[in-house]
Amino acid sequence: MKQKLMDAGILLFDQNGFKSTSIQDIVQMMGVTKGTFYYYFNSKEELLKEIHLQYIEGLIKRQEEILSNPDYDFVRKLYEIIYMLIHKIRNDLSSARIFTREMRHISEKNVIEIKKKRRQFRLNLQTFIEKAIEHGDIKQGLRPDILTMGILGITNWSYYWFNPNGEVSEDKVAGIFLDLMLNGISRNDSVYKRAKADA
Question: Is the pLDDT of residue 11 over 80?
Answer without folding.
Answer: yes
